[in-house]
Structure formats: structure tokens, C-alpha cells
Write a structure and sequence with these properties.
Number of helices: 16
Radius of gyration: 25 Å
Shape: elongated
Order of helices and strands: HEHHEHEHEHEHEHHEHHHHHHH
Oligomer: single chain
Number of strands: 7
Helix content: 55-70%
Strand order of the largest sheet: 2-3-4-1-5
Structural class: alpha/beta
Length: 331
């Protein structure tokens, strides 16, 4: 069961008695819960027929009693259990799952993890509910997610603008979505999001960011790399070293995979898990550094990750560590 299918059914006024929403990606669960809370019932119906529980403060018996009530002045009632993973004695809901009320739409938001599929209760949940499970997107899937999200809203976004957002925000779909909405409000009739828009409305420099540092290191442009790192030093919140090092490591890990891949560029891009539009940068880095050079870069990234947290290192600023590291990489 997908988000689109569930929302499509709800928009057609087609409801099932129980929806179980679980997993590590809060964005999709929140999307469904927010819609259910504000759209299944009219405002007047909701005043009598919408009940919201929070797992930490709720008792299983109260939840079952609420679900078993009949709606007032409406064909249905909605009961939402938020933060269900914090509910004590969750398995006591089994009685209601076995005999749900058709006039109740019971929605369970079980975030951050999944039920243990080996348990009797988990098997019952999958059998008796509309079951939706989600997981965090892999980082290499984020650019495509951004492009698709923007397209669904009727806009386009440049590849560089996409990478600026992804590299700056990371794997936080809700925050990415919020920043995109902020940009769209300011486009003033335009339908294409550019890197300048990201710079102006999200606060990411299009010239001094992790993506530009990555490009400079990949092409062995030491002067540019130092300029970017100096900017990071002057603006610590722009790109903390704890974000820079994992980003570079992810990039060069994929570059390293090129040496074991074969076929045309599109096929290799797919094998290493990158968008074909950006493959040129990975390919160029593989040629610039060679197998041993990329191996050396990965080792340096590991060493400087340890140094950044004080292991085997004298006290040094993040800027000094990054400068020292990129010089060694390019030697």
C-alpha cells in the first residue's frame, strides 16, 4: 500500500476500519496523518467525531473505548494514535483489531521503527489493517525525490540547485519539502528553480558549499578548495566538518566503485547508484586520482574524521583540519 493509493482512496471517500502506518521515514506518515486529521471529516463533524491520542500519555483501554463509540451527526468517526511506538501494552489493542467498528477510521502512526514481524501482534496487524511501511531513502535517491517532488507541483529545478539542497539539508524529506515551498512562494511567476533561488531563499551560497568543495577536490583544484574551506571557517554553520567529511566520503566511495564497474556510462552510473547527469564528476575524479589515489583519499577521510573528534590529534580548528587534509589528498 502506497501513500498515493491511500490518499487516493480517502479523496474518493473510501475508508478502511484500520490503517497501520510504520517505519523510519516520518515524512510519509505525517503526510497521511495530517490529511486524515483535517480532511476526512468536515470541521463541524470533527468537533464531535475526531479523537487524537498520543502514545506516551494514552491508555490502551481508552483507545479501544474511543474506537468503539458510534459517530454523532456523521457517517464515521476518526481516531488517530500518534507516536504509537510509545504506547505501553500495545498488544492489548488486539481485541479491537479482531473486531473493528466499520464506522470508525482508526489510524495508528508508529514512527521511527517497525513492529517485530515475528510477534503474534505484528502478524495480526498486517492481516487486519491497511498496512503501510516506509524506510529512509538512500542518499543517492534524494536528488530524484527532489526532482519528482518539484515536478508534481508543476515546477522544474536545475541539477545544481537540487544538489545544493540535498548536500546542505541531508536526508530530511520534511525539511527539504519546507525549503522548496519557501522557494516557490518567492518565484513570482517563474516555474524553474535555480541555484540562485536556493542561495537567496534557503541561505546556501551557490559558490561556497559542500558540493563546490567536492567538485574542487574531485578536479584537484586546490586554490578553489582552500577558498571554499576558508568560507566554511568564516561561516561555521554553513558546513560543519561533521557534514563535510561524510559527504566527501560518500562521493569518493562511489568513485572507488567505478574501478570495479563495466559498461557504458549510463550503466556504470546505475551500478554505483548516482544520477547519470552527475556521473561526469565521478568519472573525472577516478581519472584524476586513479585507484591508489582514491584509496588514499578514503583513508585520509577516515583519519581526519577521527581527528575531528579529538582522536590522535592536537587541538586544531575544523578549517585547519580540512585544509591539511585536502593538501594531502592532492599531493
Amino acid at each position: 500500500m502506497s501513500v498515493e493509493k491511500i490518499l487516493g482512496d480517502w479523496k474518493k471517500k473510501s475508508y478502511k476500519p484500520i490503517y497501520w502506518l510504520e517505519g523510519e521515514e516520518d515524512y510519509y506518515i505525517d503526510q497521511l496523518v495530517d490529511y486524515a486529521e483535517t480532511n476526512i471529516l468536515t470541521e463541524s463533524e470533527a468537533s464531535f467525531n475526531l479523537t487524537i491520542f498520543y502514545g506516551k500519555d494514552a491508555a490502551w483501554a481508552d483507545i479501544i473505548n474511543a474506537c468503539r463509540k458510534y459517530p454523532m451527526f456523521s457517517d464515521r468517526q476518526v481516531v488517530i494514535l500518534k507516536e504509537a511506538q510509545q504506547l505501553k501494552e500495545m498488544e492489548k489493542l488486539e481485541a479491537y483489531f479482531n473486531q473493528p467498528l466499520s464506522s470508525t477510521v482508526f489510524i495508528v502512526a508508529y514512527k521511527e521503527k517497525k513492529l517485530d514481524s515475528r510477534t503474534k501482534f505484528a502478524k495480526l496487524v498486517k492481516e487486519r489493517s491497511e498496512f503501510f511501511s516506509t524506510k529512509k531513502l538512500y542518499d543517492n535517491a534524494l536528488p530524484e525525490w527532489v526532482t519528482t517532488y518539484v515536478a508534481k507541483l508543476g515546477y522544474t529545478i536545475s541539477p545544481k540547485a537540487t544538489m545544493l539542497l540535498v548536500d546542505h539539508i541531508g536526508n530530511d524529506l520534511a525539511r527539504i519539502g519546507n525549503e522548496i515551498q519557501k522557494i516557490l512562494i518567492n518565484l513570482k511567476g517563474r516555474t524553474a528553480i535555480t541555484e540562485e533561488d536556493v542561495e537567496n531563499f534557503v541561505g546556501i551560497s551557490k559558490d561556497f558549499n559542500i558540493f563546490e568543495l567536492q567538485t574542487a577536490v574531485a578536479t584537484k583544484d586546490l586554490a578553489k578548495a582552500i577558498r571554499v574551506i576558508r568560507y566554511f571557517g568564516d561561516n561555521p554553520k554553513a558546513a560543519p566538518i561533521q557534514l563535510v567529511l561524510p559527504s566527501l566520503y560518500a562521493f569518493f566511495s562511489k568513485v572507488f566503485m567505478i574501478f570495479g564497474a563495466s559498461g557504458p556510462e549510463d550503466a556504470i552510473a546505475k551500478q554505483i547508484g548516482v544520477n547519470s547527469f552527475f556521473f561526469k564528476s565521478y568519472s573525472q575524479a577516478s581519472r584524476m586520482y586513479g585507484y591508489e589515489g582514491v584509496e588514499k583519499v578514503l583513508l585520509l577521510l577516515h583519519q581526519y574524521n577521527l581527528k575531528s573528534i579529538g582522536v590522535n590529534a592536537a587541538r586544531a580548528t575544523d578549517e585547519a583540519l580540512l585544509k591539511e587534509m585536502v593538501v594531502k589528498m592532492m599531493m
